[in-house]
């Protein structure tokens, strides 16, 4: 059981890296944050691929933490 959870944790970790790299870049946001023009940039609703990738990343992160907690619990016994 421990090996199965460890394998799932490794797979989820790799998928998190891939999902993070696939998200659209926001080059303009960094420039606006430095210049002080980032007032309205966070108020637009994400749509399409960007919204989908954000949800996928959130689900993968939840799975990662669940598997990590399970492994920590199993390693104490």
TrEMBL record:
TM annotation in the entry: 6-22, 56-74
Signal sequence annotation: none
Cellular compartments annotated: Cell membrane
Topology with respect to the bilayer: Multi-pass membrane protein
Main location: membrane
GO process terms (BP): intracellular protein transmembrane transport; protein secretion; protein transport by the Sec complex
Pfam family, one: SecG
Domain of life the protein comes from: Bacteria
CC per GO annotation: plasma membrane
GO MF annotation list: protein-transporting ATPase activity
Keyword field: Cell membrane, Membrane, Protein transport, Translocation, Transmembrane, Transmembrane helix, Transport
PANTHER family cross-referenced by the UniProt entry: PROTEIN-EXPORT MEMBRANE PROTEIN SECG
Similarity remark: Belongs to the SecG family.
Function of the protein: Involved in protein export. Participates in an early event of protein translocation.
Name of the protein this chain belongs to: Protein-export membrane protein SecG
Source organism of this protein record: Lactobacillus gallinarum
């Amino acid at each position: 059981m421990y090996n199965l959870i460890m394998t799932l944790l490794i797979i989820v970790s790799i998928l998190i890296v891939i999902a993070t790299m696939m998200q659209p870049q926001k080059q303009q946001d960094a420039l606006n944050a430095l210049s002080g023009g980032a007032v309205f940039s966070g108020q637009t609703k994400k749509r399409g691929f960007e919204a989908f990738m954000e949800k996928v990343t959130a689900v993968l992160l939840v799975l990662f933490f669940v598997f990590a907690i399970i492994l920590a619990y199993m390693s104490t016994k």
